[in-house]
Amino acid sequence: MNRPQHVRERPSEPSVPSRGLGMMAKYWIPGQVKTRLAKDTGDLVAADIHKHFTLRLGNRLANVADYRCVFVSPDEACDRMQTAITLGWLALPQRDGDLGCRMKHAFQALFLKCDPAKDAQVVLIGADLPTLSAAELEQAFASLVDHDVVLGPAMDGGYYAIGLRGPWQAEYEGLFTAIGWSTEQVFEQTRQVIRNASLDLAVLGMREDIDTLDSLHRLLQAEATESELKREIRRMLAVPAPSTSNLHSQYKS
What we know:
About 35% of the residues lie in helices and about 15% in strands. It is an alpha/beta fold. A hairpin with a 5-residue loop joins strand 5 (about 150-155) and strand 6. Helix 1 (about 35-40) packs across helix 2 and helix 2 runs antiparallel to helix 9 (about 225-235). The longest helix has 18 residues, at about 45-60. The protein starts with 17 loop residues before the first strand and ends in a 16-residue tail after the last helix.
């Protein structure tokens, strides 16, 4: 008589999270983007640099996460951004309000796109760091397995990335309402809100947003900066400032 065989059950595998990636980006209208850089380069060159950074990030990160949205300002430039950005990105309006309100809207929109049957992870970045890599964002997502929040601190006191582990919870509200935006205290204030809310925080490596001519020069001098990016920046910086004051029409297509 054959004895019944004991079949060992395979251990259950951890659920693969549903990941959303958002990028906050202005459309490249001269005079409305990279205004600090424009003081030294002129509005047109600054707008071209911002355009290159935004589209470069779109290409570099096209395979990161399950859902990718670029949140556009001004809202009426959404269609133009959708035409310009790499396939796989959905252009959505940033909507009204201060930066905190717009970021909160972006997070909530991305959480809605995540698979409700899976754990949700959402990371939001800006368009000021053209060397941000897919590997760095994978690290950010991995941090959200056992942390509620992940931050990538910037050298100017802000942050270049913020990620949240879903679902959305009331404790996240303070991350977007109790911060003095555009100050050197953004990162520290955000970290304090996280502490006060008893949330778990992971911190990525320090990076520098490219917002000024000095930071642009440091990017050019860094050995780690790809030669293709250096070549494009030097090409754009070599373009003479235009004599006409009407720079906006060519950026509407």
